[in-house]
């Protein structure tokens, strides 16, 4: 199962919006690996099918063998056929699964069908915790209909993201920026705001990481001010723009650059952020990576739409400056969002803190 989990991690940048799953088929005596595989790109084969194909290519006989899978084998016809049927047809004798598939189209029916066909089924709950962690966005979307929203920010040790005049390049190190690109790469989409687009003209893509796909880019742009000449359109990928006010001329200029424009009901003239996040869940966004300015960050935090913060702290002090959540305004200390630290690590000279918003 450890090997299957390691294989699942190979799908980190690849399988979205499909969960990252690994499968290892072992001989009846448990001594020989017969085949192994992991989930391919969406629409491609699942881990079990890859492992069965691998076994066939190696000339292994899998009859009676044990398959270790990091997620319940699927029982439905989605973009591909049911894995539980493929395992049954191959004559697999036992399946050790890490966790039930939260997809309501599977949800226990895969294990059920294996048992009904005489295949032994065991659950490895300890591995299930790790599989769920690896697929936090998929589990979030399946259980709440919402993506897992991870906000990334780089700042000085005293929490400054830029000087008052806007100077911000660079507060954190090259190593932190490379690390940040790996987190972008594993997301289904990157979300930013119109302030960042106008202020920085960023690309907001994945660079310097070997990845087979670029995440979609989502822009919160209430008045549809994104310039059709923005550099972000030079990257081949889906661009989704959420606005609260439509303007036919600007819309068609942006659509000519390949953007898709979504008009959502406004609250106080601004795009309803909760509606944006809900809509992204319906569009199969598992992990949503937020890189935005203090205004949008603060509004998202105040609306309780952030699940996790990924903060890079440089060992420098910037004093009176801009901050990562400046759009949030509290009158009572007791109203402050509380987070739980998950992990702290040094990334080059910077400190990377992962924290989950309490109750998420
Ligand atoms: C598995 N093994 O490796 C993965 C599974 O549209 P499809 O046919 O690709 O099905 C996608 C669903 O299959 C996905 O939502 C999840 O429930 C399950 N993913 N299942 O047996 C795998 N990645
Ligand atoms: Zn499957």
Q: What can you see in these coordinates?
A:
- By secondary structure, this protein is α/β, with parallel strands linked by helices.
- It has two domains: 1-138, Cytidine Deaminase, domain 2 (3-Layer(aba) Sandwich), CATH 3.40.140; 147-357, 3-Layer(aba) Sandwich (Dihydrofolate Reductase, subunit A).
- The chain has helices at residues 2-9, 47-57, 83-90, 109-116, 125-134, 136-144, 174-186, 194-200, 248-256, 273-282, 294-302, and strands at residues 22-26, 33-38, 66-69, 94-97, 120-123, 148-156, 160-162, 189-193, 216-220, 239-243, 259-263, 266-267, 270-271, 287-290, 308-314, 322-323, 339-347, 350-357.
- The chain has a nine-stranded mixed β-sheet with strand order 11-10-9-8-14-6-15-18-17.
- Helix 1 (2-9) runs parallel beside helix 5 and helix 5 crosses helix 6 (136-144).
- The protein starts with a helix and ends with a strand.
- The mean pLDDT is 97.
- Ligand AOF binds at residues 18-19, 21, 39, 46-48, 71, 73-74, 78-80, 83, 101, 103, 106.
- The site of ligand AOF has 17 residues, from helix 2.
- InterPro entries: APOBEC/CMP_deaminase_Zn-bd, CMP_dCMP_dom, Cytidine_deaminase-like, DHFR-like_dom_sf, Eubact_RibD, RibD_C, RibDG_C, Riboflavin_Biosynth_HTPR.
- NADP(+) binds at residues 154, 170, 196, 200, 222, 293-299.
- Zn(2+) binds at residues 46, 74, 83.
């Amino acid at each position: 199962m450890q090997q299957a989990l390691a294989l699942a991690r190979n799908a980190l940048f690849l399988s979205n919006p499909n969960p990252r799953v690994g499968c290892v088929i072992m001989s009846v005596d448990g001594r020989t690996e017969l085949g192994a595989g992991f989930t391919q790109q969406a629409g491609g084969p699942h881990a079990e099918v890859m492992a069965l194909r691998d076994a066939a290519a190696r000339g292994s006989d899998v009859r009676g063998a044990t398959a270790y899978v990091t997620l319940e084998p699927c029982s439905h016809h989605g973009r591909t056929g049911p894995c539980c049927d493929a395992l049954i047809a191959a004559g697999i004798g036992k399946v050790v699964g890490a966790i039930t598939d939260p997809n309501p189209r599977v949800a226990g029916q895969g294990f059920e069908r294996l048992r009904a066909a005489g295949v032994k089924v065991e659950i490895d709950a300890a591995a299930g915790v790790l599989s769920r962690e690896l697929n936090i966005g998929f589990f979030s979307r399946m259980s709440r209909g919402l993506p897992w929203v991870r906000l990334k920010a780089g700042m000085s040790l005293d929490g400054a993201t830029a000087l008052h005049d806007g100077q911000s390049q660079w507060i954190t190190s090259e190593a932190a920026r490379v690390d940040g690109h790996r987190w972008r790469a594993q997301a289904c989409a990157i979300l930013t705001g119109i302030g960042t687009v106008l202020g920085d003209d960023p690309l907001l893509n994945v660079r310097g990481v070997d990845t087979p796909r670029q995440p979609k880019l989502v822009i919160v742009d209430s008045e549809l001010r994104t310039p059709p000449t923005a550099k972000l359109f030079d990257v081949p990928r889906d661009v989704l723009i959420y606005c609260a006010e439509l303007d036919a001329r600007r819309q068609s200029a942006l659509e000519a650059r390949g953007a898709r424009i979504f008009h959502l009901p406004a609250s106080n003239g601004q795009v309803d952020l909760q509606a944006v996040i809900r809509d992204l869940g319906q569009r199969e966004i598992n992990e949503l990576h937020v890189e935005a300015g203090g205004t949008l960050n603060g509004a998202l935090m105040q609306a309780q739409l952030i699940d996790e913060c990924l903060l890079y702290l440089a060992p420098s002090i910037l004093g009176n400056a801009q901050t990562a959540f400046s759009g949030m305004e509290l009158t009572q200390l007791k109203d402050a969002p509380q987070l739980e630290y998950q992990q702290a690590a040094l990334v080059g000279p910077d400190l990377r803190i992962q924290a989950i918003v309490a109750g998420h």
